[in-house]
Design a protein that fits this description.
about 120 residues
Amino acid sequence: METLRHIVLFIHLIGFAVLFGAWAVQAFGGKREITRLMQIGVTIAAVAGLALAAPWGLPEDVKMNMMKIGTKLVILLIVAAFLGIGQARQRKSGAVPPVLFWGVGILTLVNAGIAVLW
């Protein structure tokens, strides 16, 4: 069961990598727009993160850090909202507001940092 948990953790980190990688390509070489790959990355990270938050496969004496899980979930929901709002604005006006675009990248880095360092 521990091996499966590690696989899900790996998939969770891949989701962040896809999201941040797609964002970085747009930030440093593209037109600074929201792409479908960013949406896919946040979805992968969210689904794998929710699977990790389930208490399956843990020994009985291990306590889950609910504060960390809650913080990461709130940040992920903000990133998903920024992506959704940014994509809607992009369709309407042709451009993503800079605050939303840069917020996606910064909050994704913060969320990945919390995953690794906390």
